[in-house]
Specification:
two-stranded antiparallel sheet; 4 helices; single chain; alpha+beta
Amino acid sequence: MVLSKKQIKWLKKVKSGMSEEELAVAVKNKTFLSLDRDNNLIKVEYHLDFENGWDSMAWDPKKVSLTAKGMSALDVELERRRTDIRNNLWFPIIVGFITYLLGLLTGAIFL
């Protein structure tokens, strides 16, 4: 499963811990909700709130946690990004520098 940058950001926030205020804002975000409902990567626990009696019943989010699937997806995605940076950034720079040095030495020897 390939996760978007927004999904990874939300998973990192959930892993580090969220306050109830942050969670109240997060449950209004469709990317956050897709992690809960569609992908089952996080689990949001709701509390039934009766502030003004039965007529004003509301579900308040109280706690959020990563599921086992969410934890493994986050770990795989972070490792994939580290590997991409290593393979697509540092490897070409190092190979280019070594090629430059070899070319410089070869040119100096045969001139």
